[in-house]
From TrEMBL:
Family matches, as Pfam families: Pyridox_ox_2
Keyword hit for Oxidoreductase: yes
Annotated organism of origin: Amycolatopsis cihanbeyliensis
Gene Ontology CC: cytosol
UniProt protein name: General stress protein 26
InterPro entries xrefs: F420H2_bilvrd_red/Heme_oxyg, Pyridox_Oxase-rel, Split_barrel_FMN-bd
Keywords: Oxidoreductase
Any one GO MF annotation of this record: coenzyme F420 binding
Length: 150
């Protein structure tokens, strides 16, 4: 049976280590920009993620700063199928982010020693090309296909 998740269920689901798909309004009459991102989240808090300000990542940064609203969707791709989508408002921008802010996101996806090395290299980069976005969840959409889908 398909149901909507409770607040606790959806916040715990979002707090699990998953890849988010970010969507933000585009420009030049193009469809919304939709890309995967690593993110951080603790129940009741803001969603955080970082990206760059150079090359292809610069467009994402520019669009987020202009729109000030975005959607993030995370999903479980095997039965029981589940997803949580958050529509949110930009709550803050850290330019450059602190080492701790970067570690809090990246350590969810890679071993601690790899995260530490990656952050040290990025913090030591004099170009300062990273920006961390903080997003306040405003609206939640969720679905849990239930145990009967297994």
């Amino acid at each position: 049976m398909t149901t909507t998740m409770t607040r606790t269920q959806r916040e715990e689901f979002l707090a699990d280590t998953r890849i988010a798909v970010l969507s933000v309004a585009s420009d030049d009459h193009r469809p919304p920009l939709t890309v995967p991102v690593f993110y951080g989240y603790q129940p009741g808090g803001e969603i955080t993620f970082f990206t760059g300000t150079e090359g292809r990542r610069a467009r994402k940064t520019r669009l987020i700063e202009r729109a000030k609203v975005l959607s993030i969707c995370v999903q479980r791709e095997e039965p029981p199928f589940q997803y949580v989508t958050v529509e949110g408002t930009l709550a803050g921008i850290e330019r450059p982010p602190s080492a701790e802010q970067l570690r809090n996101v990246i350590r969810r996806y890679v071993p601690e020693d790899v995260a530490r090395q990656w952050v040290e290299e990025e913090i030591g980069n004099p170009a300062g090309t990273l920006v961390l976005f903080r997003v306040r969840p405003d609206r939640w959409l969720s679905m849990d296909a239930g145990e009967d889908m297994k």
